Amino acid sequence: MTEASDAELLARFHDGDAAALEAIFERYERVLYQFLLGILRDHHAAEDALQETFVRGLEKLEGVDPDHLRGWLFTVAYHQAMLMKRRQKNQTAASPLSAGPGDQASLLADANPGPALAAEQKEEAIRLRSLLDQLPDPQREVICRRIYEGKRFREIAADLDCPLNTALARMHEGMKRLKSMWKQNHA
């Protein structure tokens, strides 16, 4: 299947062929990682950015021009690298260690939401947990390990004894279902 063109793989993916998605990931994983490593100069950061590239890419993959998949993936990767650099810069600048005495109090105050907001967040978390329980086990497992446990996709794939691409695909499908159920639940 790796001999197929990007356009053929995308067409197969749109027809529900999960193996086509795996072939796309396998084709671009190494080159995107090298690209990100060149920008970020850190193996862990490059791996995180690669995972986010694939997650973000999966969210929009259905609207991609098949003839420009490679360039589009590199654009997504570049944006993920820039977001990561920005976050790192902001975390360093907003670190409580670098804040002055007056700034520390405002940082702590912002971390505590008001009672109304806290109640709303708790209600939404309960609703989300209920929707998560409705997902197929493989999708729920990947989402919970990624979101609640903060694991990387490579760790999740190893824990579940599945290929990295399968873990990413399960995340994509699970998030798509969650969004759909959330909209139906709020309609």
Give the count of structural domains. Answer: 2
In the CATH hierarchy, the architecture of the largest domain is: Orthogonal Bundle
How confident is the prediction overall: mean pLDDT? Answer: 82
Order of helices and strands: HHHHHHHHH
As a percent range, the share of helical residues equals: over 70%
Low-confidence segments, given as residue ranges, are 97-109
Number of helical segments? 9
Shape: globular
What is the CATH topology of the largest domain?
Rna Polymerase Sigma Factor, Chain: A
* Portion in beta strands: under 5%
Q: Over all CA atoms, what is the radius of gyration?
A: 19 Å
Distance N to C terminus: 41 Å
Strand count, sense and barrel status of the largest sheet are: none
CATH class label of the largest domain: Mainly Alpha
- Which structural class matches the secondary elements? mainly alpha
CATH superfamily of the largest domain: RNA polymerase sigma factor, region 2, helix turn helix motif
**Total beta-strand segments:** 0
Topology:
Blueprint: H1 6-14, H2 18-40, H3 43-60, H4 69-93, H5 101-111, H6 115-133, H7 137-147, H8 153-160, H9 164-186
Helix pairs in contact: 1-2, 2-3, 2-4, 3-4, 3-9, 7-8, 7-9, 8-9
What does this structure look like?
- This protein is mainly α and 187 residues long.
- Helices cover 79% and strands 0% of the residues.
- It has nine helices and no strands.
- Helix 2 packs across helix 4 (69-93), helix 7 (137-147) crosses helix 9 (164-186) and helix 8 (153-160) packs across helix 9 (164-186).
- The longest helix has 25 residues, at 69-93.
- The chain starts with 5 loop residues before the first helix and ends with a helix.
- Residues 97-109 have low confidence and may be disordered.
